[in-house]
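**Protein fold record**
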Amino acid sequence: MADQSQINFHTWSLKSKKDLESLPNINFHCIRYSDKCAYIWIGDSETKMEYLSCAMKTPYEKDPTAIDIMLGNDDQNNNSQNLSKELSIKISKKLNKQVFASFNVSNNLLAQTYNQANEPEDNLRNIIEKRIFEEIKNRPESF
């Protein structure tokens, strides 16, 4: 097992070999700063960071509390802002640590549905969320 006090970098993609035709290019980057904090960036082919939220557990609430740290320049893209916050809460709850999440996927991609091999049609938001939690399950040392 990795030393929990060291910084760990982990990168992966939404696509697997079986999904290359149907899914858009979505990339994930995770930096685990220690056993108490993680940063996760999710984005499409435009490498940008316009939305950043932070969530952490407090003694005052059952679920992690989240705040928006950075809001994008695009008033029309509230989906990414909301998803940054929602994902930071869900991931923080799963990992039991402070999580910074930046979700930067265009509304055009989020509005579409996709077929994955051996799975029913689903929207990109759900596919991305499933992929994050699948990666957490398969590589817990990276988070």
About this structure: The mean pLDDT is 83.
